[in-house]
TrEMBL record:
This is XdhC family protein. InterPro entries: MoCofactor_Util/Proc, XdhC_Rossmann_dom. It comes from Mesorhizobium tamadayense. It comes from the Bacteria. Residues 77-217 form the XdhC Rossmann domain.
Length: 234
């Protein structure tokens, strides 16, 4: 591999940005395609699929054979709120391959006893997210039901273009939340990305059932990235 291409690829990986290494198997030349770069035709469609799935494979396009080596950051789930839903969600998400971090300044809730083997931050989201910023390969679920804790994290998630943003609460609660986020400078198009009420509509009632609904919606959001604008996702 060309040293410059390797350096570029490593820089993208360190910054948690997705990239696909495209190698022309006919002449051996390779190049880096970053997520969001425009590539037309059959090759562009194959690269878009690689970004969605993370699968590396060879493809035939424009009469040539290419190998697409996909390098995607590992998606992670940041949960705002050390509540019962979070206790069920953390082990489920870990099994599904999503590392979980719990953020909650309420030290009575954010304890290692309640969240064993989980990255736990008994701090305000403002402090944690300044130190560990969100990105487009992060999902954020706000479940404290407390605007003082949830709102900052939600605005940060929208600004970082997190692939999933969900918030606990009824439609009436969310309507008040929308007013607060607008006052914080969030745009209407940003706010429309929030899944509220949180989770797929499966009739969930218990904390564990809500956790299943949230994880399923998170996975769906990750695997359908880039399809919404094409009308492929309802």
């Amino acid at each position: 591999m060309d040293p410059y291409v390797l350096k570029t690829l490593n820089e993208e990986r360190r910054a948690r940005r997705a990239a696909v290494l495209v190698t022309d198997l006919g002449d051996g030349r390779d190049r880096i395609v970053r997520e969001g770069d425009r590539v037309a035709g059959e090759l562009g469609a194959a690269i878009a699929s690689a970004f969605r799935t993370g699968n590396s494979r060879s493809v035939e396009a424009e009469g040539r054979t290419f190998f697409l080596n996909a390098h995607l950051p590992r998606p992670r789930l940041v949960v705002i709120g050390a509540v019962h839903i979070s206790q069920a969600l953390a082990p489920m998400a870990r099994i599904a391959g999503y590392p979980v971090e719990i953020v909650d300044p309420r030290t009575a809730f954010a304890t290692p006893e309640r969240f064993p083997d989980v990255a736990l931050h008994a701090e305000w989201p403002e402090d944690v997210l300044k130190r560990e910023p969100l990105d487009s390969y992060t999902a954020l679920a706000a479940v404290t039901h407390d605007p003082k804790i949830d709102d900052f994290a939600l605005k940060a998630a929208l600004d970082a273009r997190c692939f999933y943003v969900g918030a606990l609460g009824s439609r009436k609660t969310h309507a008040k939340r929308v007013e607060r986020l607008l006052a914080m400078g969030a745009g209407a198009d940003q706010i429309a990305r929030i899944h509220a009420p949180i989770g797929l509509d499966i009739g969930a009632a218990s904390p564990a059932e809500i956790a299943v609904a949230v994880l399923a919606q998170t996975i769906h959001a990750f695997r359908s990235r880039g399809l919404e604008s094409k009308g492929a996702v309802a």
